[in-house]
Design brief:
two-stranded antiparallel sheet, TIM Barrel, globular
Amino acid sequence: MTTDNRSTLFSPLTLPTPDGTGFALRNRTILSPMCQYAVDRQDGVATDWHLQHYGAVAAGGFGLLTIESTGVNAAGRISPRDLGMYNETQEAAHRRLVSFIHSQGAAAAVQLNHAGGRASGKPWLPGTHGGSAPLEDGGWQTVGMTDQSIAKGYRPTTKLSKDGIEQIVSDFAAAARRADAAGYDVIQIHAAHGYLLHQSLSPLTNTRDDKYGGTEENRFRLTREVVDAVRAAWPDSKPLGIRISATDWVAGGLDVDVTSRLMRDLVKNHGINWVDVSSGGLVSTPLQPSGPGFHAVLGAQIKRALADTDAVVSVVGGISSPEQAETMLRTGQVDAVSIGRAAMRNPHWPAMAAARLGVPCEDNPAAPQYWRAEW
């Protein structure tokens, strides 16, 4: 594919905001949140590893960095070695990350999450991943929408009471206020990959018989409440995003028509400005596809559902080729791309991609200290 310095991937992108000002990104490359499992002290506080990891990616030219899943309370962390945003020490460590990301010309988002029945997991490190972390290794009793084991190897959850659900909604709001104080530009609410909000949305895992379960409207309720609480705590000058699993890839589970309806409602009525599209993660299924850009068709369908709004739609999953990313944008399938594993392999992915797409060296988004690399 022949391209030139009019690359769409490296054109600016404005995320809409409720106050109408918008928030500008230098390009359309987004770092996908990828857990580092680097909190050795298990206290939710970012470490030097996080600073060097996200610092390298910021210097590599990304437009927006989404900091990995960050628990809104201690029980909401994916693993004992995950980040948190529920005390002042954690907030201060996040502020350090944001400060350096900004110094490199990139914007900073944080993914706020409660992992529900997939909390207290073993970290995905060599020889350790899969199932619940033992209590003696820092694990804890998890909570969820029902009393059940959410996946093989995970201990059964304790069903959340109405008060427990309300407390989690409050914790999301408190985490949003801390994210603002830490200097973040954007929040992404995690409603994908089998974590609590996804568990509440899917009929496969939400079998409650109260106002939070049963009908589609009831299953949407918790996510709506979280979005409303975060939006109320988050400045109108800053965008609010959400990551979704567009489909469970299982009959009787979520499908893209259902999630399209939910996204239209959240964008038009509840203050969501950015939708990051993924899929699966709730139950194991051989039907889930893989391969280069395998979520593009889902992202395109969500984008069509939001065509009469100003929301930005991005997609994640198997995107490693600059030419592929450029094509997805030029053909209007999505507005931006989220890069995960490719960025772990090469934190300078945007600089490489810009060179491949013919962006002039002087316009390459890499840090000036790397100018002599002759991108």
